Amino acid sequence: MSTPENWPPEEQQLHDAMHRAAERVQPAPDGLARIRRRTAVVPMWRRPVVLGLAGATALAAAVIVGGVILLDGSDDDTPVATETSRSPSGSPSETPTETSAPSSPPGTETAPPAQTLTVPVYYVADSGDGLRLVREFHTVETNSSSVWAAVDEMLKVLPTDPDYTTLWWGGVNVQSAEVTADAITIDLSDPAEDDPSALEHPDLAVQQLVYTATAAAADAGQDGSLPVRITIDGAPAGELFGGADVSEPVVRADPLEVRQLVQLNDPAEGATVPSPVTFSGEAAVFEANVLWELRRDGEVVDSGFTTAETCCEFARFEMELDLEPGTYEIVMSESDPSSGEGRRPMSDSRTFTVE
Amino acid sequence: MVQDRTGSAADEAITDLYAAHYVRLVRLATLLQGSEAVAEEVVQDAFVALHRRWRRLREPAAAVAYLRTSVVHGCRSVQRRRGVAARHPEEAPGHAPSAEQVAVGGAAADAVVEALRGLPDRQREALVLRYYGGLSESEIANAMKISSGAVKSHASRGLAGLREAMADWS
């Protein structure tokens, strides 16, 4: 608990004020007793994977429904593959750190030479309609497959965009990633501890992995519509995060239900780019209208709208702006879906610098 | 039974962790989302979750980080459920301050807490974890599950947002 002495007065005051406010908070004396009452029962969080027949049938039905949705939405995945190749090589490159360095995957035969890959990695963001999937492209050095590298990146590297977060808390390794005719099989190490937010959104956490694996497969020219089989230490995982059934391979959920409806691809967060600046991404928005706002030091300096190629399903949008050198924030959003009622419009933002 | 053995190890650990961290975590949670009563619930949830996962924690040192992440996440969920109403919760942290507290600077603290409450969640989290929690950038990144660079940017945006309110009382 350090209190750096070299803080400017402003920060020192903030520190003091918070401590003063906090010290007024006196928790009730029975906290431990309350916790004890709840931990005394045998935990039910990880029930044995013995599914009743009814449960199994319902799950099978769910998988089929998912499959139908996938067929409907399969076109949406195509941009993932094309986008990646379009993505400037310098874009969301992650500075390799200790944590991001892919430990050599066990089970690889003769290690192929390391290559540089740009892989799609899905994260989550609080979109205005709860958490939804969002995507970044990360450039990685790897001697493994694109699928392995993408999932590994998702598990080990936090998102670049400050508005994004992840439902995988770390401590999990990819042990193998295999693409076969009927499924993509990802074998993970047993998570040391479940991500607390994943416990609240178990299905979305699984979809984060499914979207990442399938997008990476598509990107590598493999079948991105395959379901994803998740195993833990080589054994069927059964259930993850106390609620997501992964006993059968899992397909992508309907993107309109799980993805943030506006997704910026370029510029990448923190990128330095020349003017004119190209803004591109994908959106599934009413009347294909994507609103934008350009901010500088928090002030809106310009705004307008652009259109996606089609409405109401994920389609590409792109626009260009001539900008003076400086640091900007772009916010791209859907128009208010309900004229002020219901959920907030979804948006995606990037901070970037024009050189 | 294995269950029993790990169960009692977990019980002991929870008791120790409670003694060392409960009050601070409740205060942290109060700063993060405003309500003291909710803060206690969020922190108790975090301890219960930790107890259940005790067996799977690789090292005891990870326990505090786990509690912190759970609390940050729990407060975020509370804020999300409250939606727009969260901007103006009725209950101020610490309820009505006494005259003495105001005299020793309670009013100034209130002004900051009030201003904090108007910030976007991530900015508030970054500031509270840094200035109340006393955490390093990487600990904050871990608790918020964002990169260190993102912690920096949230903190500096949050500071900018508070500057106006702070100018009023400094």
TrEMBL record, chain A:
It comes from the Bacteria. Residues 82-113 have a biased composition (Low complexity). Residues 76-115, 332-355 are annotated as: Disordered. The chain crosses the membrane at residues 49-71. Residues 147-241 form the GerMN domain. InterPro entries: GerMN (IPR019606), Gmad2_Ig-like_dom (IPR018911). Keywords: Membrane, Transmembrane, Transmembrane helix. This is GerMN domain-containing protein. The lineage of its organism: Bacteria, Bacillati, Actinomycetota, Actinomycetes, Jiangellales.
Automatic annotation (TrEMBL), chain B:
InterPro entries: RNA_pol_sigma-70-like (IPR039425), RNA_pol_sigma-70_dom (IPR014284), RNA_pol_sigma-E_actinobac (IPR014325), RNA_pol_sigma70_r2 (IPR007627), RNA_pol_sigma70_r4_t2 (IPR013249), RNA_pol_sigma_r2 (IPR013325), RNA_pol_sigma_r3/r4-like (IPR013324), WH-like_DNA-bd_sf (IPR036388). GO terms for biological process: DNA-templated transcription initiation. It comes from Jiangella aurantiaca. The keyword Transcription regulation applies. Belongs to the sigma-70 factor family. ECF subfamily. CDD domains: Sigma70_r4. It comes from the Bacteria. Residues 111-160 form the RNA polymerase sigma factor 70 region 4 type domain. Keywords: DNA-binding, Sigma factor, Transcription, Transcription regulation. Transmembrane segments: none annotated. Residues 17-82 form the RNA polymerase sigma-70 region domain. Coiled coil: none annotated. This is SigE family RNA polymerase sigma factor. GO terms for molecular function: DNA binding; sigma factor activity.
